[in-house]
Each structure stands twice: as C-alpha cells, then as structure tokens.
Design brief:
three-stranded antiparallel beta sheet; alpha+beta; globular; Arc Repressor Mutant, subunit A; single chain
Length: 102
C-alpha cells in the first residue's frame, strides 16, 4: 500500500487550486457566488440584489468565468449567470457553515 505524497501535485493543478482560492478570497465574489446558489441571475439583478455597480459585477463575473466557476447564457441583450462548478460550490457552502459555527 503506497501513500500519496503532497509533492505529487503538478504545476497546473497547483495553479488552478491557488486561483480558485484567490477567487474565493474576495468578499464581492463570495457574495456573487452565494447569490448564484439560489439560481440563475442577470447582471442587473446581481447588481441590484447586492447593491453593487453593474461594472463591478461584470468585472467580477468575468474573473469567475475565466476560472470556469460561473457560466452564462444570453437572451437578447441580457446575460444570465449561474454557478458552473459543484466542487467549488460545496467548498463555498462548507466555508459558510464553518464561519457560522464560530
């Protein structure tokens, strides 16, 4: 029986994991992802729900989309966003539960 060692992580995996945690380290991105737990939302709806500027929401969504943490669909001129990674959503929910128990 062989044990896996921590140094078995390749550079790409390390980069992706560190970028995911970077995404989750920003309060605005956490608020957006938390809202997306409730379902699909337009950029305007996210901005209004979280009292943020539309430009701020768009910037953060672009960051999250580049990491494939959110996806979107277009309907006319409106973009609707939803979460795109159950693993990260599970991590987010566990983090929220952890914080609530302190």
């Amino acid at each position: 029986m062989s044990e896996k060692k921590f140094n078995d992580l390749d550079e790409e995996t390390l980069f992706i994991v560190s970028q995911t945690f970077k995404a989750l380290s920003d309060p605005t991105r956490l608020r957006i992802l938390n809202l997306l737990l409730t379902g699909e939302h337009s950029v305007n709806d996210i901005a209004e729900s979280l009292s943020l500027l539309q430009s701020t929401v768009s910037h953060q969504l672009r960051f999250l989309k580049n990491l494939r943490l959110v996806k979107y669909r277009r309907e006319g001129t409106t973009f609707y966003y939803s979460h795109d990674d159950e693993h990260v959503i599970d991590l987010l929910q566990q983090g929220i539960e952890h914080a609530k128990h302190h």
